[in-house]
Amino acid sequence: MIGYTTVGTRDLAKAREFYNAVLAPLGATLLYENEREIYWGRDPSGTKFAVVVPFDGKPATAANGSMTAIRAETRAEVAAVHEVALRLGAKDEGAVGPRGEGPFYGGYFRDLDGHKICVFIT
Fold this sequence. Notes:
Layout: E1 4-8, H1 12-23, E2 29-33, E3 37-41, E4 48-52, E5 68-71, H2 75-87, E6 91-98, E7 105-110, E8 116-121
Helix pairs in contact: 1-2
């Protein structure tokens, strides 16, 4: 149902470097970029994740209560993404592991701009 999601950034170059590394364990590659936005995904016609410089020219801020969840294929991918994110300066928002009694398994972090990201499998 969702085609793409975007989060704002105050530094597009740093966000590019961060997400190139963080999304690599998932097999995502940079699909498109220009001076305002960068999109990653596994397939150009599939779901995408992007960082953007806000169109209104105001500073990017993290929304309280908002979170982007990125699906992984394996628990190893979940762990790899979480580890890379923390190594590159992300803040831990929840260690990798199971949540609840169902099949959900995930890890949470805040990116360099403070956006809450979850990488997970079910």
